Amino acid sequence: MSPLPNIACIDGNEAAARIAHRLAEVIAIYPITPASPMGEHADAWSAKAQANLWGTVPEVIELQSEAGAAGVLHGAVQAGALATSFTASQGLLLMLPNLFKIAGELTPFVLHVAARTLATHALSIFGDHSDVMAARTTGMAMLCASSVQEAHDFALVAHAATLRSRVPFLHFFDGFRTSHEVGRVELLGDDDLRALVDEAAILAHRARRLTPDAPVLRGTAQNPDVFFQAREAANVFHAAVPGVVESCFDALAARTGRRYGLVDYVGAPDAERVLVLMGSGAGAASECVDALAACGEKVGLAIVRLFRPFPSEALLAAIPRSARAVAVLDRTKEPGATGEPLYQDVVTAFAESERAMPRITGGRYGLASKEFTPAMAKGVLDELSKPDAKRHFTIGIADDVSHTSLTWDRAFSTEGEGVRALFFGLGSDGTVGAAKSTVSIIATETPLFAQGYFVYDSKKSGAVTVSHVRFGPKPIRSTYQIERADFLAVHHFDLLARMDVLERAADGARLLVNCPYEPAEAWDHLPRDVQEQILAKKMELWVIDADRVAREVGMGKRINTVMQPCFFALSGVLPRERALEAIRRSIEKAYAKRGPAVVARNLAAVERATGEMHRVELPAGATSPLLRRAPVPADSPDFVQRITAMLLAGKGELLPVSALPVDGTFPTGTAQFEKRAIASEIPLWDPSICIDCGKCALVCPHAAIRMKVYPEGSLGDAPEGFLSKPFRSRELPGFALTIQVAPDDCTGCGVCVDTCPAKSKSEVKHKAINMAPAPGNREAERPNFEYFLTIPELDRAALDPGIVKHAQTREPLFEFSGACAGCGETPYLKLLSQLFGDRMLVANATGCSSIYGGNLPTTPWSRNRDGRGPAWANSLFEDNAEFGLGMRLAYERARDEARRLLAELAPKVGESLAREILGETATDDAAIARQRERVAALEAALAANPEPAAARLLSLADDLVRKSVWIVGGDGWAYDIGYPGLDHVLASGRDVNVIVLDTQVYSNTGGQASKATPRGAVAKFAASGKSAGRKDLGLIASAYGNVYVAQVAIGADDAQTLKALLEADAWPGPSLVIAYSTCIAHGIDMTTSMTHQRDAAKSGFWPLWRYHPGSDPHQQPFRLDSRAPSMPLRAFAEKEARFAMLMRSDPQRADELLALAQQDADERWRHYTQLAGLERSVVAAVRPPGAPAPEPGAAKTVEEEE
Amino acid sequence: MDLSTRYLGLALRTPLVASSSPMTGSLDGLRRLEDAGIAAVVLPSLFEEQLTHEALAIHDALDAGAGIFAEATEYHPDLTHYDTGPDGYLELVHRAKQSLGVPVVASLNGTTLGGWVEHARLIEKAGADALELNLYQVAADPAHDAAALEAREIELIETVRAGIEIPLAVKLSPYYTALGHFARRAATAGAQGLVLFNRFYQPDLDLETLDVVPNLVLSRSEEVRLSLRWIAILRRRLSASLAASSGVHTADDVLKLLLAGADATMMTSALLERGAAILPELEKAVALWLEAREYESVEQMKGSVSQAAVADPEAFERANYRKTLRSWSSGWR
Lengths: 1202, 333
What we know:
The complex is a heterodimer of chains A (1202) and B (333).
Chain A (H helix, E strand, L loop, with lengths): L6 E5 H11 L3 E4 L6 H12 L11 E4 L3 H13 L4 E5 L1 H16 L5 E6 L14 H4 L7 E4 L3 H18 L3 E6 L7 E5 L3 H7 L2 H9 L19 H7 L1 H22 L6 E5 L5 E5 L3 H14 L4 E6 L1 E3 L3 H7 L6 E6 L10 H11 L7 E7 L8 H12 L6 E4 L9 E2 L12 E8 L4 H15 L3 E7 L8 E9 L12 E6 L4 H4 L6 E10 L4 H7 L2 H9 L3 E5 L1 H7 L7 H12 L4 H16 L4 H14 L4 E3 L21 H11 L32 E5 L9 H5 L5 E7 L13 E2 L8 E7 L9 H5 L13 E5 H17 L13 H4 L18 H11 L3 E5 L3 H7 L16 E3 L6 H30 L1 H9 L5 H19 L4 H9 L7 E7 H7 L1 H9 L5 E6 L2 E2 L5 E2 L23 H6 L5 E5 L5 H13 L4 E6 L15 H7 L6 E3 L10 E3 L8 H5 L3 H9 L1 H25 L31
Parallel strand pairs in A: 2-3, 2-4, 4-5, 5-7, 6-7, 10-11, 10-13, 13-14, 14-15, 15-16, 17-20, 20-21, 21-22, 29-30, 29-31, 31-32, 32-36, 35-36
Antiparallel strand pairs in A: 1-8, 6-12, 8-18, 9-11, 17-19, 18-19, 22-23, 24-28, 25-27, 26-27, 33-34, 35-37, 37-38
Helix pairs in contact in A: 1-2, 1-6, 3-4, 6-10, 11-14, 12-13, 15-20, 15-21, 20-21, 20-22, 21-22, 30-31, 30-33, 30-35, 31-32, 32-33, 40-41
Chain B lengths: L4 E3 L2 E3 L3 E3 L8 H9 L4 E8 H16 L23 H13 L4 E6 L3 H14 L3 E5 L11 H18 L4 E5 L6 H11 L3 E4 L7 E2 L6 E2 L10 H11 L6 E4 L6 H10 L3 E4 L1 H6 L3 H15 L5 H4 L18 H13 L1
Parallel strand pairs in B: 3-4, 3-12, 4-5, 5-6, 6-7, 7-8, 8-11, 11-12
Antiparallel strand pairs in B: 1-2, 9-10
């Protein structure tokens, strides 16, 4: 069967981007979830020289921020180009100033927005209309698509209407629910595009362009005399927009048969209760209304398509006159308003009409992709039946604080014909890819409609994915997760013990489990609660050892093409042979370009799959003694038990409003309670080979390898099997050492083993630490780790932290993050937490580090036994340096005020105590411990003092102990969007420490190029290989002369990294540490995450250096810590897929770029070697104005210690 | 002086042939070689194992982290193609053939029977003048006996031979118990030429890290003697073309091999070390030697000092060591 013509299976982002790329000349982009894929598609298409409707290839350019992109777009449209862009959320906010300008100048332009909420008490990447509502005063027309097909159609309507009306358009659809839902789309052809896009309007747009051949002036400054009138002069253009959009809709309908109105209505023509909403919620609501109307209920739904200019007439025309109650649903929140925006518009529309006012209520739903189901829509309609229906309400949550929430009947379901399937995957086992492929096969090769939606975990390692797949004979409007599945596939056996997989299983559902046990034994390995569910729901149980099959055909851990044929076989959506043929074709299509070996192995998996599947005969009753694991240990703290455990169990939806912090404040140290046990192998220590170097603990990205030293003979009650060896140290004779794995927290990445330098004398493959199968060993190591935690921490002053193994004896206060296995960033943060964690404030830019650092349910930022630990906050992406500077200023003001008060109160609290506190100038750990003791004494003295000044000092006394502010972020922040702020903060001369976790791409959003991306590397937004060399951020910063700068790579030279962090902290001015961080976006085997960095330094790709300012006029502040490059850059690059991909896809360009990259490295080295000989000293004292002069001797802390 | 020779039925202007190397892997390098007077080129091997490895590596890299996290459903742009199949190689064959006047010999190193045959056909279709099969394996498994391994290689030669029309050479390693016997079987199975010998990549140890490290060492002139001996032995026993490979650096090396019976002398290390510019010097030196000794042509001298042509055939077999000692001792006694 050949694929259906003009049908594609794509998601909302691609649906919109396909049109945008065909109708644009200039596309300025910047990555932001969930809109990034639109820019990625556009960049990739232009990189492949795919032309627009007029035969030219659109210019796609990435900017440093959305603000930058908006500036470029503004310039482009002023100069006559057809321009477009894609954004969401904070990105849209950054564009606002230009959007006002573009609209004010009546310039055709389309911005496609995958609508996402705004960061308030927390960041959230998920969908609602908070962002677009913030743009509603810009003067842009706003068109809202509510499905993937509409995202495609409305993209064209927006581009056509902006040209006809001159009013710029903001075309939006719901983030994730529409942007990431895949489904069957009828594609618009070039003829459709030509039919709607008015060529004359394009010529008119060009005629208005800025050109010296017909010069004009635009963007004047106007005064009170005329500004107002001029502002009103454009009214007629805005007033014409609804008509223009209608005519475009008509033209679209004439060509495609798909008819849309400014406001569409579904339901009973004589409806008495009517819902009004826009966006993807229309799908769920229309299912509900249709179902109720079919039962004779007088209900209806008005779907708003054009939101700005608000089409009052169309709204009134759409809502039947019989309506006596109208509920307007807004997917946004506007605290303090009389109601949310759509509600207010609807009220106004009625109020200004001659019609009798129905009872109009307004409610919020679906914030940050909160589920919105037909049952919830019914809940709202039910409320409208009441004479005293709530005027302002919420739906979808339980609000037990303000009592805004409506209840709904969870049993109400509108799921009709068709099949609903859920696929539970783990990590990158290919589950999501297979589900997408399945949807695509059904959507493009059968007459059936299909829909795929994917729910992801908050972790980047060991993450659970749930794929929701529907298919059936009618268009699918179900814009909500599957609640009752007919088919469930569990792609990893352990998931059955981890989560309530069968909660959503329908009675009689088929369950397919990837099972490592023989079919006859499968039943006995299921947890008892799962067995009971299977029996109670009369399910069919099928098993297959997909891991074995995948392994045997050379597919490694990828089980997708083993599981997919089984789904087709069991679901019966297609005759088996036709299904297999379609899968084979899809494999050819997807993998042919990756090489025949990839295709062959996938095909081999398909051939084997269904023959390996077995049905399990079910016994009459549950037999297993096993129970599903509790999400957190029973002895966890109260908050963790009440809140975190619910989130971990996937039941956060059930938490009421009262359960949650009012201001986004959460306890730290919660990752330790997760005990995810995701590793298939864990490292075990062999003390007989260990050389005490501490490198395994240093490099562990998850703090799952721990090192402790303790007095020999102090392990009286250690469990049997707890290992120990004498600690080789001149400083600490008589001490013993243990290296211990945290068996449930390890991800099995193997970085520790790869890094371990100690090899057995008789068999080199055996090291001092070795990977071993987790089953069995995990259970054995649990009591050891528990005991390990009880061993007292060593006094921080006992060992100089300037030596790696000494630093590793310190307790990490950053542990068990959900970062990718082998993450190159987290070892730096863990080390920082070991060095300064008990006196550290962290300002964290949005990005990977804010996600593994602060994405609920848990955080790896932790606290020590005294309750001290890093205090962490995230503001935004673009402002992190400034955010951190603000923290520093607050601390300094508090510290100075405390010192002033202490001096004032010295007679009351004790002169000598006050003198000692005020006179402490040392900054080492011993001094900090001394100062803490003094402050404790001070606090005791103050507690008894009734004076107001004493209370004030008591509130600030902690700040008499030295604090460090660390500003943490990635290269996207530091090099691009946050650079102006970073530069300003460095220029301020203030004592802040910046660490840039430099992965050379925007890692968190999937690897888009930044200015840190090296020449020749392929990245998203640089699909043809980056042409420009990377920015030398360190060198730019060092130009200030008083900024401490270090470029480090912990895997290349851990001692240099350690030295740099200590020096940065000690330097009393600004410090910048640029830390090379390996990332899965580099395309390396992440087990070699650390050892690979040696080649980065060795090849001159990433030279290690420090710029240590000082006052000695003859000092040479630039220290080159690397040796001269001793391997060609190409040899390094060949080991990374980001470079190697280009060598395969475009060898000639790769050769050219790599030759230039080699020159970059050579020139950089030549430049650095010259810098290393230069003398330079700090001119100005590193002291803010008004600050007291440093004590004599204090300046020594900044001097070089070598 | 007529330096021409015939190899695999192809007429070569001189016996100087460039063996597989990075230099023959680019059109630039190939053109440089032709400009300098090379008589034929052997392209680098299409290495099936490498292709498979690269395809899977690219597959792994593209899939790493894919479908795990909502913000990053993958981490690399999906490019139009990756050339992990034979296409890039076939393109090289095609373009080499288009741009060069000298014969272009493609080289193939397979791991599966299907791979060998399919790739051989594609190479022929791409226009190669001849194909060299690179039989390269380390028979490390004690469970596999020599007879079975040899039988598999012979089957492979037969299958490839049956699948293509262009001349076929087989590049052998010296590690056969009965090399002469195997060489004859290979020729009987359809190899029109034998290339003697493969140089194995030999692993090395890093004393600092105790790692096993790859170590590619360029050949030296001394190594030519292994080829010399076997070419001399096989020359009159086989009708197949014989090419010498490994250690050909100087005109003396070339001359000796021709005298032993080589139809072509293949170079890699010499070209990599000293560039294509050595070719005119070599050619001139060979010609001078021949002229000085009043040879008419290369064809005339080829094989004139092969085993069958020398008075003491034993010299090419076991006796070398003893004779050497005797000649030494006679010197100082």
